[in-house]
Amino acid sequence: MPTIPIAQAIERVAVAVEKATSDDLREVYGELYPGKPLPPGGPVAAELARYIRAEMYREEIVDLWNVVFPSGQYVSYDEDVDAVRISDHESRYADRD
To answer: Rg (Cα) of the chain, in Å, rounded?
Structure first.
């Protein structure tokens, strides 16, 4: 399972947000600020990217990763190595009675 150091994962998401369309920016804004109305004129890519780089909690990057990169891959944060892990499928556990 590939891992991406958290600093690189944050930067990848921030760069993608800087290049995002206005529709995608609204979706990112909704993920970062749920329930908060959109600012007049819509969200500004540079402001969202700055927030992602400077203020976002490491654990939250996974939720935003899935919004920015909707690839169907399973993404998780591994606090032991401070990295994002990516796999093609979610780990499954057998049900136990």
So the answer is: 15
Alpha-carbon span 64 to 31, nearest angstrom: 7
Quote the pLDDT of residue 95. Answer: 41
The residue written with tokens 């993608």 in the block is 16
The structure tokens listed for 65 are 């990763």
Question: Where do the H-state alpha helices sit in the chain?
Answer: 6-18, 22-32, 45-54, 61-68
Cα distance between residue 97 and residue 82, in whole Å: 34
How open is the CA angle 67-72-76, to the nearest 5 degrees? 70
pTM: 0.84
